[in-house]
Amino acid sequence: MSGLLEEKCTTKDFGIGVTLGTGSFGRVRFATHRKSGRPCAIKMLKKAAIIRFQQVEHIMSEKEILIEMSKDPHPFVVNLMTTFNDEKYIYMVLDYIIGGEFFTHLRNAGTFNSETASFYAAQVVLVFESLHCKDIIYRDLKPENLLLDRTGYLKITDFGFAKKIDFKTFTLCGTPEYIAPEVLLNKGHGKGVDWWTLGILIYEMLAGEPPFVDLEPMGIYQKILSEKLSFPKGYDKAAKSLTKKLLTHDLTRRFGCLKNGTRDIKRSKWYANSDFKWKQLERRELEAPIKIEVSDDSDTSLFEDYPDSDDEGDGDFIKHDPFYNF
Q1: Is 72 among the residues known to form the active site?
Q2: The domain boundary residue, chosen from 69, 95, 121
Q3: Which of 140, 158, 194, 236 is catalytic?
Q4: pLDDT over 80 at 311, yes or no
Q5: In b/e form, how buried is each residue of 166-176, taking b as 16+ CB within 10 angstroms?
Q6: What Pfam families does the database record attribute to this sequence (predicted)?
Q7: CATH (domain of 228)
Q8: Do 180 and 118 share a domain, yes or no?
Q9: Residue 92 near residue 21 (C-beta atoms within 8 A)
Q10: What is the DSSP letter of 161?
Q11: How far apart are CA 72 and CA 80, in angstroms?
């Protein structure tokens, strides 16, 4: 297995602790690898639920993409250490990212200033640039899928919707507020969806909420398709220009999709006006605007508290286990 743990593991190889997050198919727990003492995060996914909701392909794709990424690690992507499975669960062992969810930091702040938002958006640009060079689309950008490491830099996690494509794919997926119009129209979508989601993230960082909100998903979708985009008072002028160019329905005009690729974003006024240091960012030499304060490498205080659960009741007998060699 590619990653930091070469030997075949079982749950006995880890001291498993508190829950760091929950999802539709299981939860992520803090753990310590007993042999090395290394802290990690174990994503525990219920096989029966994955099969019942026909998500086998997504999970297998997530594993393969994370393995590919771990061969050439990106500074802003969570690293996969190993995978294994038992009768009830599949397990993905990932680096533990100590700074908690970006979502929590953004909600606590309400909004970010332009400098902070541009710092974090730039890291997403570099990740998407790297993924797209490998013909991988991410498709699930949102604050909940971003973590902060000890230095205050981003780590993108949860590649469940990521997919390797030749040109287009037709699967409807994503978080309602972040779904691109071409996904909703079901005419096939490609790398452009990621640049749309970047526009949504920039807007949410600066405005405190996404641009298209409603109590019901259908209401959100109608607003996305309406092509009406408004900005709150005080929204940074240079950021507004870039946001509009990312949140355009016309793929022949959307930044990131044009012949200059990410250079259009990097040269936009939002970054050019501040003479943003892209190379230094990639080398992690810039000072992060958010300070992470923890006591030690096993500190979980920056994650939300979740009620404990043994996740009983989802151990249905699986006659043909598609994860046998996971």
Answers
A1: no
A2: 95
A3: 140
A4: no
A5: eeebeeeebbb
A6: Pkinase
A7: 1.10.510.10
A8: yes
A9: no
A10: T
A11: 11
